[in-house]
Specification:
Number of domains: 1
Oligomer: single chain
Order of helices and strands: HEEEEEEEH
Largest sheet: 6 strands, antiparallel, barrel
Strand order of the largest sheet: 1-2-3-7-6-4
Distance between the termini: 43 Å
Structural class: alpha+beta
CATH topology: Thrombin, subunit H
Helix content: 25-40%
Radius of gyration: 14 Å
Number of helices: 2
C-alpha cells in the first residue's frame, strides 16, 4: 500500500458518504471515505471486493469512471478509476457533502 500512497497524482478529498455501485453484476453499497481524480477509498462488508474486480459508482448523482479494486484490507478497499474525474467534480462532491453535513448539524442544534 505504500507504493499507492506515493504514486498519487492528485489530493484525496474526504467524503464519508454511503453510495450504491455495481460490481460482479450485482448492486453493492459502500461508504466512500475519500475521493480523488483517479480513485477513491471505500468501506464495505467483509468479502465485498476482490483485487482486480471492476466497479461502477454513483456518488451523489455523479457517475464515476469505471474503477478496479487495486487493494483490499478487511472492510476497506482502494479503487483506481480507468479514467480521471475532473478536479471541479471532485471539489463539488466534497463541498456538497460538507454543506449537507453542516445543514444536518444546524438542524439538530435548532
Amino acid at each position: 500500500m505504500e507504493q499507492a500512497e506515493s504514486s498519487r497524482s492528485s489530493d484525496r478529498k474526504r467524503l464519508d458518504l454511503l453510495v450504491k455501485g455495481r460490481s460482479r453484476s450485482r448492486p453493492i453499497f459502500v461508504e466512500v471515505i475519500d475521493v480523488s481524480e483517479g480513485g477513491c477509498k471505500v468501506k464495505g462488508g467483509h468479502g465485498f471486493a476482490r483485487v482486480g474486480e471492476s466497479i461502477l459508482l454513483r456518488i451523489d448523482g455523479v457517475h464515476t469512471p469505471v474503477g478496479k479494486f487495486v487493494w483490499v484490507d478487511g472492510r476497506y478497499a482502494g479503487i483506481a478509476f480507468e479514467g480521471k474525474m475532473h478536479p471541479a467534480v471532485v471539489d463539488f462532491l466534497h463541498n456538497e457533502n460538507a454543506r449537507k453535513k453542516e445543514q444536518k448539524k444546524a438542524g439538530k442544534a435548532a
